[in-house]
Amino acid sequence: MKFSSLLTGALMMGSAIAGAITNTDAVPADSSASLDKVVLPITTANSRGASAIEPKVITKVIMDKANDVLTSTPLAGLKRHRRRTPSTSSIEPRALPPLRWPYANSAVKIRGVSLGGWLVVENFITPSIYGQTNNPHIIDEWTFGSLQPRSTAIRILQQHLNSFMSEDDIRQIAAAGLNHVRIPIGYWAFEVGNGEPFLKLNQWELLKTAVGWCAKYGLKVLIDLHAAPGNQNGFDHGGRRGVNAWAGNATNVQRTVNILQTMSREFSQPKYASSVTALELLNEPVTDRNVVLDFYQRAYEVVRYPNGRSSPPSPLLVVVGDEFINPAFSDYWNDKLRPPTYEAVSIDSHIYTIFDDNALRLSSQDRINYYCSLKPKWAAANNVHWQMVGEWTPAFTDCAGGINGRNRGSRYDGSLKGSRGRINSCAQRSGDASTFTAKYKRLLGSMWEAQVDANEGGIGWLMWTWKTEAKAAEDWSYQKGLQYGWIPRDPTKRPNGIRC
Ligand SMILES: *[C@@H]1O[C@H](CO)[C@@H](O)[C@H](O)[C@H]1NC(C)=O
């Protein structure tokens, strides 16, 4: 999870920004005016510069963009970011390798959810995993594996892995009219290096098992490498909060490429023809852009040609995270990863509007207008690469326990250190959905609806996340939305009448 993009790139966060912001330190709460302009050091793939980039700095960069979009009259600023739409003649025809889902058919949209918090544990999704350690210093999977007896860690994690998702979840997802599932997995499912305390249990076997369930219920699967050696973003869901040591270490980058080749070799096989359709190279990298681009190009090669150039290419869609450089607002991707060298590439943008003090203060109408303003931008971006919104949430507060990191507070109620001050109480905003008022549920429904409508401007969407532990972060749960009615049982319906 987490998020992403500031408002896609911008406000977000979600995971990125969101995520980014989410997992990183509190953003200095001040308005854009006081944010420092921070320039990411650009280094080469062999330099060590990236490892020195702290999440806080990255957050500022992202927030600077977010604020660019949102300050003063929140939505008026969007105009400044009008993206130049390439003229049709400047777009080379995209080659279409034989894919397993009609991503090129604009009448067919991705509608899906991530199985967040399962193979990669997230504190805010299953707080009991960390709570039962009785150790406040255990804040991510790295400390989970290093700050308690190994046998205890294995017992707790194994129990979680074997029970948090089941075939019945997949059945329910299909019954809700969804067609895709995004499954995050961490590198430690494949190998752990010396001194890395991550627990390699049966995550890889479970991934293949879940893919089998999806095949049975007709769901397509996007596999997402969520955490790479060294951590590519510094968020807790990258494995180790506050550490960003992937890009600065060529060994770590190579290990990542190798894992992607292993996954492509597996899932390109014909036995997965009815299930696995896409492979995301890396979730939410927030680091040296040159290293990321070089990595994307090398990873593309081994994913598209997992058995070498003399064997047939893979039928998997290659999905790349936008690094919070959102194609809705930036031309950055227009000349990268393009045909004829790179075929069937999709850009994944993550949209969160809850990891920034300004964004949290948007009125509901402005928030809906913001989401809707993205629809034509996604459509324009889709002329260049297949554009998906692979993470977003109906939640419009950061009240979910631990969403900003374990044992941190929320900006919304001012309890997060560094936040600008209380907007309102977090009571009945997250946690147990049975406490939500009818009005609040209607608002969650409107946020769901606006984003679904907007995000179908591109090739579609995957909401974060399918489920959460009982009574935790239920405003983020698709399953609870169905149960309590803020999400319709048919995702093509617009019960609140919102059409962007
Ligand atoms: C780079 O990462 C590898 C593990 O992948 C580690 O063994 C090595 O010490 C790291 N190098 C540096 C300079 O940190």
UniProtKB/TrEMBL annotation:
GO terms for biological process: glucan catabolic process. GO terms for molecular function: beta-glucosidase activity. Keywords: Glycosidase, Hydrolase, Signal. Residues 162-392 form the Glycoside hydrolase family domain. Residues 1-18 form the signal peptide. GO terms for cellular component: cell surface; extracellular region. Pfam families: Cellulase. InterPro entries: GH, Glyco_hydro_5, Glycosyl_hydrolase_5. Gene3D superfamilies: Glycosidases. Belongs to the glycosyl hydrolase 5 (cellulase A) family. This is Glycoside hydrolase family 5 domain-containing protein.
